[in-house]
Fold:
Amino acid sequence: MTDPTTPTPDGPAPPPAVQAEGVVKRFGPTLALDRVGITVEAGDSHALVGRNGAGKSTLVSVLTGLHVPDAGRVSFQGEPAPAAGDTAAWQSKVACVYQKSMVVPDLTVAENLFLNRLGSGRVRWSALRARARDLLAEYGVEVDPAARAGDLTVEQGQFVEIARALSFGARFIILDEPTAQLDAAGIDRLFTRLRDLQRQGVAFLFISHHLQEVYDLCSTVTVYRDARHVLTATVAELGKAELVEAMTGEAASHTAAWHATSAARDTAGRQGAEAGPEPEAVLRADGLGLEGAFDPVDFAVRPGEVLGLAGATASGATALGETLVGLRRATAGRTLVAGRPVRPGSVPHALGAGIGYVPEDRHRQGLVLGRSVAENATLSVTDQLGPYGTVLPSRTREFARRMISSLDIKTSGPGQPVSDLSGGNQQKVVIARALARDPRVLVAIRPTAGVDVKSKDSLLGVVRSVAERGDAAVIVSDELDDLRVCDRVIALFHGRVIAEFDSGWTDRDLVSAMEGLPSGGDKGAEE
Amino acid sequence: NRGSDSKAGTSGKVGIDLPRSDSDFWNSYNSYIEKGVKAGDVSALPRTNSQNDIGKLVANVQNFANQGAKAIVMAPQDTGAIASTLEQMAKKHIPVISVDTRPDKGQVYMVVRADNKAYGQKACEYLGAQLKGKGKVVEFEGALDSINGRDRSEAFASCMKARFPAVKVIALATDWKGDVASAKLQTTLASDPDVNGIYMQAGGVFLQPTLALLQQKHLLKPPGTAGHITIISNDGIPEEFKAIKAGQIDATISQPADLYAKYALYYAKAALAGKTFEAGPTDHGSNIITIPNGLEDQLPAPLVTKDNVDDPDLWANQLGKS
Amino acid sequence: MSDTSQLTAADVAAPDRAPSGAPRLHLSRYRDLSLIPVILVLGVIGFIVSPAFLTSDNLIGVLQQVSELSLLVLGEAMILICGRMDLSLESTIGVAPVIAMWLVMPSSGSATYHGIGLLPGWTSVPLCLLVGLLIGGFNGFMILKLRVNGFIATLGMLTMLRGLQDGISQGKSIVEVPRSFSYLGGASWIGAPAAVWICLVLFAVGGLALGYLRHGRALYAIGGNSEAARAAGIRVDRITWIVLAVGSLLAAFAGVLYVGHYGAISSTQGDGWIFQVFAATVIGGVSLNGGRGTLFGALTGVLTLQLVVNVTTLGGVPPLWDKFLYGAIIIVALIISRFASGEKQD
Amino acid sequence: MSDTSQLTAADVAAPDRAPSGAPRLHLSRYRDLSLIPVILVLGVIGFIVSPAFLTSDNLIGVLQQVSELSLLVLGEAMILICGRMDLSLESTIGVAPVIAMWLVMPSSGSATYHGIGLLPGWTSVPLCLLVGLLIGGFNGFMILKLRVNGFIATLGMLTMLRGLQDGISQGKSIVEVPRSFSYLGGASWIGAPAAVWICLVLFAVGGLALGYLRHGRALYAIGGNSEAARAAGIRVDRITWIVLAVGSLLAAFAGVLYVGHYGAISSTQGDGWIFQVFAATVIGGVSLNGGRGTLFGALTGVLTLQLVVNVTTLGGVPPLWDKFLYGAIIIVALIISRFASGEKQD
Ligand SMILES: Nc1ncnc2c1ncn2[C@@H]1O[C@H](COP(=O)(O)OP(=O)(O)OP(=O)(O)O)[C@@H](O)[C@H]1O
Ligand SMILES: Nc1ncnc2c1ncn2[C@@H]1O[C@H](COP(=O)(O)OP(=O)(O)OP(=O)(O)O)[C@@H](O)[C@H]1O
Ligand SMILES: [Mg+2]
Ligand SMILES: [Mg+2]
Structure:
């Protein structure tokens, strides 16, 4: 039931870039799309938002011919969509950046960029690499076109996929959460590119959980909720609060995180006051360093404090985070939890010492995709689910149910394979796993990647609550929303601490710091 | 295929297991068995085939027992792992005739086989005589873990050592595989071009690959001419006879598939009739010897050369007929 | 569960989500039961072709015939579940007993096989198991420490160990073995061969361990995504190593049973089994890519294969077509189970 | 490059990316050359143990000895690269020629084997190849349409086809074959066996196709990430199917060469080869999980294996320890190649 009266910038003249009506898609018992529709006018940039599991990615796979809808019609420029399976025809209609990685890890960057577009006859690799280099240069990504795609950082990989999708010269492009893995600089580069294309009259369907991006880039927005179409409106006429309300279906209680922060700051302050000048730090890194990743750093996280480690691509921030949790063995210094040193390079000991971990890349380190939600959520607490090293299914399910409800994970039940969850909900499962042990310190790397606004608040709220109860948390991220929750932010740049801020920093300061231009002071109280 | 069961000749049925279905020799044996059964020598349960797998053999034998077989004919290619099965049969008082191999342990009613040591012995004597006691001989050994292969190798080796010390033996492990033999022979010919004798322990697998290789290397000189490589084979299958007639190989030792089948059934019948035998010469020109776990009828294994290759008594010469 | 206001989404979801939990579970459960229909079909056929089929003699016979193979399957299943493979099991079953005999058999005397008589006879079984452990440990060393390709490494071991057996035993079968060594394989407890009971117990223990012990569950995590397992604090390498060792240990124990069962250490024992081991394991629902499958499934796999042999034997298939039929039945069974579980296999 | 102001992050990243990028490249190239050092070592050993090793006779002999195996390896390598496996190749090499003979050999006459004489003798080679195609096509049907597990399906085919061969040939070797059928395997062109030239050409063609043709590259995409491949518009199923068919076609052709080479269709032709095929392919750097490896690497794999046999034969290894040594050398070779490429294998 699309809203036909969707206001369009340029009259009724050209047929819509894409029009979908009454699309229904079931996955077994799960109803992923329930008679939804969407209309993207030619040259329009159309945002699709909705909570995790709303059905966005499913719609994308329907619009790109990956899934055949159980019912409903899809048409491009007025003519019906190509037959299922005729991928080549689909490609001529629409290009797409999928939410899940679509690179072939063992092939070079160049080949990934021109996958199945190597032309007929003999492939000229040097020429291909040259073209690839130019293409990537447009996005300012410095990647050797001959490098294995599998060796790229998450960000670079994302850009390879974006560059590939945009290089088709299609008139209609879908981007499913392209920014989820990008740092600020990367997002800038992407948007300038997209605006160019907009000027050339290319139509977009843009999916993101960063509502600000919707306002920056798009003119129309469609909201899905629980597999149904809720509304379609011009962005200009729709306030952030209304938008959030449409997504969540309830009066927006945004800025939850903010209250959390301020509140937390007092508590932290108070505790600081009580415990005298130097309260026992929950987590302390002294001289902690990793050859080739980051120089030795010193910092301490007090009880009730949330520390932010801000760092863009290759800043060493992630490496630092991974060193803290024992995934990488520090080459210098040591980590102490509550004063006791943690055996370096050993995750089990880090866990034992009370360090919880939310990894950066949920598919690589976070989830065992084949297994159930329950199993994944309890992976790190198997020793607490029964006597004598046993794991009782009842307790496992019970435990998982608690997590599912407290983190509001959208799943058909503890038994559902994680692979069937939507991207954001998978992320929640990862966080559930980290929280399972009631860690003294929670080290979270980009905890809210691909998580919807509401869940983001509640997740950050969860991180806060770890601090509230007197423990501590470390957030490694370059997303300002994540960092706002922090009482203190250390900005890394190229493996060195470049600046440190108390809460209340300005976005400008922090961003420029992350880009390596420290604007000196850490003052500035407006937000 | 159970039709033959109906006309029960003597009291009780015989369970007959065939060792494998992928070798010329054993297929001839199988066909002789079928002939015999059809001819009503004994009434048999449906034949089983253990495909050279001891596990299958044991299972088959147990099935025979379950189906009330009164005697069992088998050709265990693994002489060790049949032991406990033989003991079980002994407990059940089911006589067992073992064809071609002599079980290491466990009671047998009769072992029907030609003496494999004699094969090696004869081959050695023939080659030694032909080569006038000097030269280089390549020996294709069978699988090291096969009793027959081992007997032939040991007999051949000891005989050579004792009687023709001047003959250098190059033993090649082949696992009964023709292509392996060919590859190793080719390699050996590269290092020792002066090889002038070959002993293959099984013509069925080695004959064609060897001939093909020698052909390619132009080493198939007719007997008597210079550079002729004296070849003695083993089995006595029709192809070998052809080769002998064509002067491609010199001799083979005829492993009597027909007699194997004939006397397997003969002794099965005798067992049903409760007859007993003791060591000594038999009425069919063979010799029964006593072995720790029973008796063994050592059937004659004639040496076949150009001179007697047309002898109608040789089993390979009877294949065409009847 | 914090404030209810958060739960709307889930609540809304409830109606059409609720039913979905069950079927999913079933599917994954079907996967392990998918051979049951096949086994039933085979049973019916068996019953038709021969009255002897349904006799306890025959059925117990079937169980006994698979006892050794099933232990290899047990080991391989665990190894596959945690994402590795070990081809050398088929040689371990042969070489472990031979080495044990070599160590315990007197260097002279009536026995046809002469060892070095280093240790008393009663140590033969423990020795055999120890050898198994060492072999598995060495495999683990190559795969986990040297980081060489497990497939080739264990394939090389397969050949090497078989060669070692030939070398030590001079290719002979070893007939005289200490009493204690042949006891388990030959003995029969309460009406069925001891080996059968032992295998059933081992499968039960293994199944429970994989289902209800944390270190057992860990296998699935390791096989499913070893990096995630590592990040979750599971000692991936240590556990994998242990599993490899246990696998070979089971193979060595299968060797003990084999000797008792067939009355001698056959020089070809286990030769060519690895295909059946993989066939049984994979047809039983264990994934070659790790992280999926159950031991129960694997067990049904072995039984299926042996029942096929049993039925074709009883049916008196003409020898020349016996192999053909066997292969054809495997394929049909595979297809039946695939559609019974309704799950696409990959 | 557009404007620098926004490039800071990337620029900075560049320095420490560059080094990490370059070595990778080499690595992946090494991976295919990693057996070269092994081959050199074997060469040196061979030269030491026997002067005959370096004779052209011997080296050409080695090439000829692997000609049939190498064709199976060629097929299997392509199949593995696109993420599948086919075990039945080892039976196809035997059954395809036998079926062809069955169709062309007169139903009566002097020949020891009697077929149904349906078609004239000259059709035997095309027939054989056709049979190969059909077998591969059927494998593809089971794997891609019925979606059954490829490992078991082809394992079943392995047994079934071998059984079919036994059935049709009554377990006999077939000695008399049409002239045209045995020509290629026996003939010799410009000083070397025709089979050697043919194999080299086929490998070259295959290598170029996989390296420089769109559809060749598609194999890597399919094997590496079939979902991405599908999304990129590659006809995954169709190409996989074709590859499976070509693989069996090559196996059938290997059968033709075999017959010419060994002078008869042996009833056990190809029996047990699949292990060597996998060993050669994987040791040559092709990944069992698909998406990695080159045909050149696979070729070095076959040569390595055969050189081991050649050297041990020249060295006059005592038969009893032959197998042991073979296995040991494989493992050592594996370890050498792993450290030569410096790459962890999985
Ligand atoms: N392959 C699948 N099998 C079963 N269920 C699926 C599958 N893919 C998606 N679903 C279900 O369909 C619903 C919609 O998933 P979808 O990925 O479209 O959500 P989304 O809007 O993209 O969420 P996110 O913003 O987190 O990416 C979810 O409940 C998910 O569990
Ligand atoms: N174990 C390591 N050994 C050598 N160099 C490393 C190692 N880990 C990271 N590096 C290098 O150190 C720099 C920082 O790595 P890191 O992965 O921490 O960046 P990052 O902060 O995670 O950036 P991103 O946001 O892209 O993940 C990168 O240039 C990376 O290539
Ligand atoms: Mg999505
Ligand atoms: Mg990183």
In short: Chains B and A do not touch (no CB pair under 8 Å). The pocket of adenosine-5'-triphosphate (ligand 2) is lined by residues A 153-155, 292-293, 311, 313-319, 328; D 13, 16, 20 (CB under 6 Å). The two ends of chain B are 20 Å apart (CA to CA).
